[in-house]
Design goal:
six-stranded mixed sheet, three-stranded antiparallel sheet, 11 strands
């Protein structure tokens, strides 16, 4: 989250995120943009609101509330390096009560308020214009020529009232002096939580004088041994891998890849089909029951030399009834020439079967024999 607002509102926002358990895992971070100059003397009072908290019924300011600021990075104007800046601020407050400003003076209010950073910017702007105008006069140029004055300002550095050297590029943009403040370990703290809000880094342009609008300053640590203490020990992602709305995971259809995959799938399907067919065929061969009960087989007798004339006609009738459905009387069937069987035959479940005796102790049914019998 990027938070732009007053510090008192930031405290309520962080508290709301804590109640929703969004700051526990380190997936979220709050970047607060504050125009108030960082004050090292208030590093331990970062979440205290002396003028508001005493009037609230809910408690605020325990260790868990402080720990919520581990996910907060404050981007604030750097603390002035000029030792006289505090005196300049007191002069500005005193001048505001005089004409032509005439701000109503109240001692208690004036002691508690701070001079906004815009006052320092206004002071620098006046000094930059005065320096450029002085150079124009020294060169005997027309002071009404705005272009000539602007050439004395661009691509040059100036010394700010805050104690910094600031560079103005060819576009008229001044290099800002901002500090990143985060919650770090502080051994000087005498409380249970030995942590406080401290500066961790700043921003610096890699090449001064660049006129490219897309150039961004580089973040650098003030002390590499004291980096930002990220929750979970790692830098949170700026956005999900597929984007907030899945827009980065939309892939275009590659018909070449699809055709190759389809061909491979078709070949695999054909191989699987033949493998399944072969497996089922082998299962049928393996599951066939070859052993039957001979009591279920009716042996059909054949003609021999010992067969009498009285029962020969009955034998022919029986054999004829097997090969041909009878349409007349037994006498008529007996007179016809019966069909001959060249091996012993029988009936098994209304089917004609050939019977052959094998004089072996054991019989091995090979795969070729099973295939032949199945046909």
């Amino acid at each position: 989250y990027v938070f732009v607002g007053e510090h008192i509102a930031l405290i309520d926002f962080v508290k709301c995120l804590q109640k929703r358990k969004l700051l526990d895992s380190g997936e979220y971070v709050v970047i607060s943009v504050d125009d108030e100059i960082y004050d090292p003397n208030r590093r331990i009072k970062i979440i205290q609101r002396d003028y508001l908290d005493p009037f609230l019924s809910e408690t605020w300011g325990n260790i868990s509330d402080y720990m919520g600021f581990r996910s907060v990075l404050k981007l604030t104007p750097s603390h002035p390096l000029n030792p006289r800046y505090k005196n300049v601020c007191e002069q500005i407050k005193a001048s505001s009560a005089m004409p032509p400003f005439c701000v109503p003076y109240h001692r208690k209010i004036f002691d508690s308020i701070s001079v906004p950073i815009q006052a320092a910017y206004l002071y620098d702007a006046v000094m930059i214009y005065a320096r450029a105008l002085t150079e124009v006069f020294e060169n005997n140029e027309d002071p009404r020529n705005g272009t000539a004055i602007l050439q004395k300002i661009l691509n040059r550095s100036y010394h700010s009232i805050q104690g910094y050297d600031v560079f103005i590029d060819g576009n008229g943009d001044a290099e800002g002096n901002f500090t990143v403040v985060a919650l770090l370990d502080d051994q000087e703290m005498n409380t249970t939580l030995r942590m406080s809000m401290q500066p961790v880094g700043y921003f610096q342009y890699t090449s001064n004088g660049s006129s490219h609008l897309l150039d961004l300053p580089e973040f650098k640590y003030l002390d590499m041994s004291r980096p930002i203490q990220w929750v979970g020990g790692k830098l949170p992602s700026a956005e999900p891998e597929c984007g907030f709305h899945g827009e980065k995971c939309i892939y275009k259809i590659d018909w070449k890849v699809i055709s190759i995959l389809s061909s491979i799938f078709l070949i695999l399907a054909i191989i699987a089909l033949f493998a399944l067919k072969h497996y089922r065929y082998e299962q049928k061969l393996a599951c066939l029951l070859w052993k039957i009960d001979m009591r279920e087989v009716t042996i059909i007798p054949t003609q021999t030399s010992e067969t009498t004339a009285s029962n020969r006609s009955m034998i022919q009738v029986c054999r004829h009834s097997v090969f041909q459905a009878p349409t007349g009387s037994i006498a008529e069937i007996a007179e016809t020439s019966p069909k001959r069987a060249y091996t012993k035959i029988g009936l098994y479940k209304s089917n004609i079967v050939a019977i052959k005796k094998l004089h072996k102790k054991s019989l091995d049914l090979t795969r070729s024999i099973r295939m032949e019998l199945k046909q």
